User: What shape does this take?
Amino acid sequence: MTWEELDYARLEALRVRFLERTAGDADYWNDEADLASYDLTFAERIGWKWDAVLRELQLRQWQPPRQVPLVDWGCGSGVALRRWLQHVGLADWTELVVSDRSARAMRYAEESVRRQYQEAGQPLPTIRQLSPDAAAAAATGSVLLVSHVMNELDGAGRARLIEAASQAQAVVWVEPGAYDESRALIQIREALMRDFRPVAPCTHSAGCGMLTEDNNRHWCHHFGRAPVEAFTEGHWAQFGKWLGIDLRALPYSFLVMERRTRENESVPSPDWSRAIGHPREYKGYLKILNCQAEGVEELMMQKRDAKALHKHIRKGKYLPIYRWRRKDAKVVGGEALDQEGCL
Ligand SMILES: C[S@@+](CC[C@H](N)C(=O)[O-])C[C@H]1O[C@@H](n2cnc3c(N)ncnc32)[C@H](O)[C@@H]1O
Assistant: This one.
């Protein structure tokens, strides 16, 4: 599928389902061209979110489990699995599992992953296409990838997925940066907490601070950066215009957890904080919704108190992870997690 061949009517049909949240009702992949059109556009944009998540994990020096199965649940065209393999490596998996309620999607995802290995000249591990029920069993001891599936699952589907997650070695789950999906991820975080430790976005292993009544209106979301082609290539401009969105804004929610072991218990660094969403900018100061072990609260930072940090935050180029110096709810200085990943 190329941009010239792209059929916007197909995308429109998909988009209506996603927007009206009716995508969960029935399998909507009518033919391979649906998947190819999705893969070139919506999935690529989802891939940019995965790039942001995977870069963060690398900066935070997280070592994912290896020599385990890698399962992509609700795989669609397979973008999550391909991005994972691209960032983390092609070689270390005992098997790859693509799972979806749609057989067509599983075939497409498997084919796309095969091509990825061929193009890299790497030997292909076993790839299995498994129904959601069978994938639940295969997820035991795996790295479980989940991407943009939450709002298509009913209660039973969600429960099955959470049960599968509870058997995994690690879970890496990316969703749109919307209220409902974020809140659902928070529930999953809390449900897995006994056996798993949060790797990201959290900087701590305490209960989620979003769950207090005061924070009811907030949700845990973050912004990635679209790659340069989103600004320079005409077809992306056209796609963004058609969608009616600014492609530069890339909101997402995510959750990465790994099974607790004696070694990884001490990994979180509770004196570090994470800024949620975008800071709000006022004349001479910023308001930052801040998450740390003690809870989620709004902080205020005056430019004159911390000029360099203020600039750093406004540019928004880096991970929004900081070690503040504070006077109550006022930030008076501190340091940012830098590109070397000092966390
Ligand atoms: C929006 S697509 C996301 C696909 C892919 N994970 C991505 O990020 O591009 C949601 C996928 O979930 C699948 N799906 C929906 N309900 C499901 C269920 N109950 N069990 C398994 N897969 C399901 C759909 O067929 C579709 O492929």
